[in-house]
Design goal:
With about 190 residues, the protein is α+β, with helices and mostly antiparallel strands. The chain is about 25% helix and about 35% strand. The strands form 3 sheets. Strands 4-5-8-9 form a 4-stranded antiparallel sheet, with no helix packed on it. It has a 3-stranded mixed sheet with strand order 1-7-6, with no helix packed on it.
Length: about 190
């Protein structure tokens, strides 16, 4: 009787294994669509001008692809009222890369500061405890656990940087410029 039980167990295990393997395999509904090879298109179509028509086809294909995939929504900036009531300005360090001199500046939230002739910094927002998810950018608390400032920097009237500067993580998305570095130091309370 032991051999019958043993054989039955082996058979059951084999059936379970086969069902598992079979259920994990996906049967394709149809063959995947493969985009045409541009070199084949050129060689098979003698009426096509190889210089201009394939570029037009390529740009049309790219545009169709971009139109088909919607861009994810940008998170909304939400500055809590207690943060607005507490923080009035932001302190930055401006580093002149040429001679490594550092200057500390304080810029009121919503105001501009001229770093150098033609180079201006504007503070859009300050969040003492920066947090970002897929829906919002906000401050979790009013304590400076993760200070961040959203800034716009223009050179000769042209926007060259819009983004967040982080005091604890200055290497994350830093402002890149040939002559100057701008580093967030801290928020200044009222």
């Amino acid at each position: 009787m032991n051999s019958k039980v043993y054989m039955l167990c082996k058979y059951v295990l084999l059936v379970c294994f086969c069902l598992t393997v079979y259920s994990c395999q996906e049967a394709p509904d149809k063959a995947p669509e493969v985009p045409p090879n541009p070199t084949e298109f050129k060689s098979k179509s003698p009426q096509v001008d190889n210089n201009s028509s394939t570029e037009a086809v390529s740009s049309e294909a790219v545009q169709a692809h971009e139109d088909a995939i919607p861009a994810p929504p940008k998170p909304e900036l939400v500055v809590p009222s207690n943060v607005k009531e507490t923080w009035r300005a932001v302190k930055f360090s401006i580093v002149v890369k040429e001679d490594n001199k550092t200057e500390s500046i304080v810029v009121d939230i919503g105001k501009e500061y001229e770093i150098h002739a033609g180079l201006t910094l504007k503070v859009i927002a300050f969040l003492p405890d920066f947090k970002m998810d897929s829906v919002t950018i906000t401050s979790v608390t009013n304590t400076p656990n993760n200070p961040a400032a959203k800034v716009e920097i223009e050179e000769n009237g042209k926007n060259i940087f819009t983004g967040w500067l982080y005091s604890k993580y200055p290497d994350i998305h830093p402002f890149e410029h040939q002559k100057y570095a701008v580093l967030l130091v801290e928020g200044i309370s009222k």
